[in-house]
Amino acid sequence: MRHSTRLPLYITIVTFFVAYAACIFQFPNMLSSRVVANLLTDNAFLGITAVGMTFVILSGGIDLSVGSVIAFTGVFLAVILRDTSIHPLAAFAIVLVITTVFGAAMGAIIYYLEMPPFIVTLAGMFLMRGLAYVLSTESVPITHEFYGWLQSLYWKAPGGGRFRITGLLMVLSFVAAAIALHRTRFGRNVYALGGSAQTAQLMGVPCARTTISIYAVSGGLAGLAGIVYSLYTSAGYSLATVGTELDAIAAVVIGGTLLSGGSGFVAGTFFGIMIMGLIQTYIVFDGTLSSWWTKIVIGGLLFTFIMLQKGLAWATTARIPRANVSAARS
Amino acid sequence: MAVDTPPVLHATGISKFFPGVIALDDVELALYPGEVHALLGENGAGKSTLIKCLTGAYSRDGGTILLDGKPIDPRDPLSSQAAGIGTVYQEVNLLPNLSVAENLYLGRQPRRFGMIDHRRMVRDARAVLAEYGLDLDPARLLSSYSIAIQQIVAIARAVELSGKVLILDEPTASLDRDEVQLMFSVIRRLKARGLAVVFITHFLDQVLELCDRATILRNGCVVGTRRLESVSQTEIVTMMLGRQLEAATKHHDAGPPGKLLLSLRGFARRGAIEPFNLDIHEGEVVGLAGLLGSGRSETCNAIFGAQAADRGTAELRGAPLQIPNPRAAIRHRFALCPEDRKTEGIVGDLSVRENIILSLQARQGWFRPLPRARIEEIAQGYVKALDIRLANLDTPIRLLSGGNQQKALLARWLATEPDFLILDEPTRGIDVGAHAEIIALIERLRAQGMALLVASSEMEELVAYSSRIVVMRDRRQVGELRGEAISPTSIIRAIAAEEEAVA
């Protein structure tokens, strides 16, 4: 019972390793640094998005706009690099400011107008997707040499795996988020909000600042994910990453975070992402399965993990002793 | 406690008006360091309003609050807490998803190099809680501990943050006996540390056991402040209820009761009602008397299965009976008119006719609708029999006056032709005329051979219709009055437990 909040995290981690072992058993080639490196590279943008989503869901909210924000970021970068001579680093800075401010604005609307996050971020989703269309309806290729240089940066591990800078960015995002969530007052306030916003307010948590920061973090990380995605595809396309927000939510939930907020770990989200990536890799290795099997398996996993959380919650509350009087008397 | 020292908190002339109501009228409250001060009064006396004015949850309309001699003007609970007034409510206002230590230190966690120092926080929390007599692991989740422990953690947080005045609003309401003692030991420690503690509760026993002084409120006014060692319990009850102990009103002779209908043995529900025995006969009205929170409604709900008893046995006409939920009770021809008709009884937007047949239809099953003519007959019959005044049967029930709503609710249950009718506060919030009619109706039903259990806070009313009165205090039966022994005075005495009730 002591570790009841960590149990879902452990279960996710164990699930990942068991699944990976099963994959290796069937396809021994999957045990290679290439597979691991590709897991990180292919899922980098989704992982970074899911980090932001973990903040939002821990606080009891939801952010449906992130998929559109990624697409907008990609199109924005592609268009600005095509039409101006601005350096990509400057363009990165501009787009990160835009997406962070956009997230903060949604957070402010959610807090001050007391609107449900679902509706506000749904509006944000349409808004960002629409803006991406306005910039360009076509897929715009990115051919800047700085992009080529960034893409050529990798560390070649023994076994041929190429660990790229985007994968590193994702891992760094997870580490930074874990520190922020567990070792700063802001992070603990995120959990407090997720426990009960009303109680948190009564206990002196700066709810306005925290809510706005949470959605700013989610928007900013979606922007970063957009940058990573543009590096990954070398293009900006307004129809890209439709539904990515749902993949991110699925990763967070599979990672053991309670959808109602207040309980969970960003490390779980990492393994949630890895499990989803592993399923895709398995399907590639198998070669005969339709890629839709990814969705089916993720659906099944999601359902299992929700059931698991329900069961754990039930088991924990059922076992609370009525009073610890004997231990407490002095 | 030393009265010659200046009060730590002195509120004078506190007034609060709500539209059409004077909630607090020129109230004075003085708290001295090292005392436990009870705030007493029936519901609606103004206890909560006073507390909310002190903590800034309400802005008061008049009066001054002096804390350590300096005027303060709290605008919200956080600012009053910063000034030195901490509050703990009945429902724990902490975060169950965080650890005990984090709940203690949220917003002021110890930090090292800008990062929260978890180890130090847990160590400090352990030391703080040890002062409250708790030896527990503060790294564990708050929700892994019982409500009593959570309540004490809430107290510890409030004291750590404020440290002068601690207001406890019904902290023991959902605790059982051992837990209450644990809570008391914590409060006594705080008292020894020189804090002024305000203790609000409906349990007079707890007040007498724990508190030094009491301020008694009634209808928004202070009736008096007394040192508890110098007053009797009867005096306090009289002050709270504001009733003169007049001679007994007329009491009818109900004659011998009929056959034994329902027999309860050791009936109890943890945290709600202590074990009790009760026999109810046909043609008998059993009154349930007691102060608010004494367990009257809980008894009614336990018998009806609304909050099912977890211990004890029941026999109906000698045959064993299980009442796990209201459906089972209704099947055995029980009926319960709940206390709060607005939230538990009427369906406001449905017509009077629909409200009346609701329970009968529910018992029939929804797939066997009552014929229209039969509905009309039943509804018309009861409207006439109970003299419910309305334009027509299609009127939404919320448009009716309180008394007529209550009668329509009664009609709903009478339509199921119950053998055993439980009425919880049948006359609350209705006018004098309707009041008399409902009392007459109870008498009529009894004469027809129905068994009734009526819980009420109106002593005169209980005296008027009860064949027997069971007196409750602190969720226990403390006495039973019969025949000539029934009078408002004897009920109040029994509540105050100054003399053993004569059976």
From TrEMBL, chain A:
Keyword Transferase: no
Membrane-spanning parts: 7-27, 47-77, 89-112, 118-135, 163-181, 212-232, 292-309
Localization terms from the record: Cell membrane
A Pfam family recorded for this sequence: BPD_transp_2
Keyword rRNA processing carried by entry: no
Coiled coil spans: none
One function term, GO molecular function aspect: transmembrane transporter activity
GO annotation, cellular component aspect: plasma membrane
Membrane topology summary: Multi-pass membrane protein
Keywords assigned by UniProt, alphabetized: Cell membrane, Membrane, Transmembrane, Transmembrane helix
PANTHER family the UniProt entry points to: ABC TRANSPORTER PERMEASE PROTEIN YPHD-RELATED-RELATED (PTHR32196), INNER MEMBRANE ABC TRANSPORTER PERMEASE PROTEIN YJFF (PTHR32196:SF63)
Annotated protein name in UniProt: ABC transporter permease
Organism from which the protein derives: Thioclava dalianensis
UniProtKB/TrEMBL annotation, chain B:
Compartmental location: Cell membrane
Membrane topology: Peripheral membrane protein
Key words, A-Z: ATP-binding, Cell membrane, Membrane, Nucleotide-binding, Repeat, Sugar transport, Translocase, Transport
GO cellular component labels: plasma membrane
Domain ABC transporter: 9-244, 243-499
Pfam families in the cross-refs: ABC_tran
One annotated GO molecular function: ATP binding
Protein name per the record: Sugar ABC transporter ATP-binding protein
Species: Thioclava dalianensis
